[in-house]
Amino acid sequence: MEKNKQNKISSIKERNTPIRTALLEILSKIKKPLTTQELLLILAKKEIKANKTTIYRQLESLKENNMVNEVHFNDRNTRYELNSKDTHHHHLICKKCKKIEDITLLEDLQYQEKMILKKSKFKVTQHFLEFFGLCKNCQK
Ligand SMILES: [Zn+2]
Ligand SMILES: [Zn+2]
């Protein structure tokens, strides 16, 4: 993790609840998008008491503070990951072993977003794009 982000986390930590701090720590350690359900299980293992509503509220507030990103895959779950503003990326999701990898695209979707603005006069402020398939191992 770059120093920048670490400072950001620790400065916010001061006014953080234990749950909020724990959530940030988990997300920075695990480095993949997690559902509230998965976060609950990890917190329980750490013997931190929390319920879904508390976690959801904390995550929403972290989102507002640009500390976490929401990620959507091909299911009903919302997942959360630590926000690294300088590294906008997408995900490669293996349908067989469920492994998730980050991927940064060259030029990303800037061209398409420009075209959308041109054609539809629609100003894109955010996009989600995830790739589903088979990882190297699962292709064997
Ligand atoms: Zn796989
Ligand atoms: Zn993108």
Description:
It is a single chain. Helix content is 41%, strand content 18%. By secondary structure, it is α+β, with helices and mostly antiparallel strands. A 3-stranded antiparallel beta sheet has the order 1-3-2. A hairpin with a 5-residue loop joins strand 2 and strand 3. It starts with a helix and ends in a 7-residue tail after the last strand.
CATH class of the largest domain: Mainly Alpha
What Rg do the Cα atoms give?
17 Å
What is the number of beta strands? 6
**Proper CATH architecture of the largest domain:** Orthogonal Bundle
Identify the CATH homologous superfamily of the largest domain: Winged helix-like DNA-binding domain superfamily/Winged helix DNA-binding domain
Shape: globular
CATH topology of the largest domain: Arc Repressor Mutant, subunit A
Oligomer: single chain
- H/E topology pattern: HHEHHEEEEHE
Number of helices: 5
Major sheet details: 3 strands, antiparallel
* Beta-strand content estimate: 15-25%
Spatial gap, N to C terminus? 33 Å
The domain count comes to 2
What small ligands are held by the chains?
zinc ion
Q: Please give the order of strands in the largest beta sheet.
A: 1-3-2
Report the mean per-residue pLDDT as an integer. 86
Low-pLDDT stretches? none
Q: Estimate percent helicity.
A: 40-55%
